[in-house]
Amino acid sequence: MKDLINEAARIIRDSKLTLALTGAGISVESGIPDFRSAGGLWTRFNPEEYATISAFRSAPEKVWEMLSEMGKIVDDAKPNKAHLGLGELERMGFLHTIITQNVDNLHQEGGAKNVIEYHGNSSTLTCLSCGEHYNADEKRHENPPRCGCQEILKPDVVFFGETIPPEALSRSFLLAAGAEALMVIGTSATVSPANTIPTTAKEKGAKIIEINMEKTHLTDYVTDIFLQGSAGEIVEALVAEIKGLL
Ligand code: NAD
Ligand code: ZN
């Protein structure tokens, strides 16, 4: 493992454009469960039933039961060593942009400035009926939150069945095509189209460094260096190794 971390650190030190693609796994050590972990939120709220746009349109009150529980967990969560380490790499000039599938704001709280929120953000709400926008904070006491027109509001996160915000999509694709290194951290890389970012980067010549507790479908086919373990520990070790090379 020590050798692999050293190899990954050298790639990042020498790369002119490094990206990180992150998923729910990077926030597990902050106490936010991913879709695959046993127990907790997602065993009670099946994402296929609760996180689709058709579920929201047909039963928004029911979907808000899940959203408010997730909201409470996210409100209490603090950035962990992986978020903080990526923030530090960005400040040191070794990380250009983070593309995150998460909607928990922990990269920004961990000090990162260049974050593309591929699946949106839960801090704003939109009315699907009249198009009015609200800050989630101003509607915090309402459950479910309603628009002035009485329609139940939807958070500006991307539900299954919705399209990716066009700017996030095009910027991510352009960056992936120009990257020399890509860290893929805590994502099963199964949700489309975020899962095309590693293959796009690889085809254009980027080295792929994957950090995950378990192998994914990328590991044997796309990944160049697989660092198995928790995101917090591995990112911390990687940042220390990069500093040691300077
Ligand atoms: P996923 O649940 O499909 O996969 C999580 C991956 O993280 C798995 O491969 C798992 O092995 C790995 N993992 C778990 N704990 C880890 C740790 N401590 N260190 C390193 N790796 C770890 O998540 P996904 O690929 O991101 O796709 C699910 C979708 O749901 C995404 O859109 C995701 O952002 C969203 N979601 C977001 C949050 C959040 O905002 N924090 C939470 C749950 C789901
Ligand atoms: Zn409205």
Quick synopsis:
The chain is of the alpha/beta class. Helix content is about 40%, strand content about 15%.
Account of the 3D structure:
This protein is of the alpha/beta class and 246 residues long. The protein folds into two domains: 1-32 and 79-119 and 164-246, 3-Layer(aba) Sandwich (Rossmann fold), CATH 3.40.50.1220; 34-76 and 122-157, SIR2/SIRT2 'Small Domain' (2-Layer Sandwich), CATH 3.30.1600. Helices cover 39% and strands 17% of the residues. It contains ten helices and nine strands. The strands form two sheets. The protein has a six-stranded parallel sheet with strand order 3-2-1-7-8-9, with helices on both faces. A hairpin with a 6-residue loop joins strand 4 and strand 5. The chain is elongated and about 60 Å long. The mean pLDDT is 95. The structure holds nicotinamide-adenine-dinucleotide and zinc ion (ZN). The site of nicotinamide-adenine-dinucleotide (NAD) has 26 residues, from loops. Zinc ion binds next to loops.
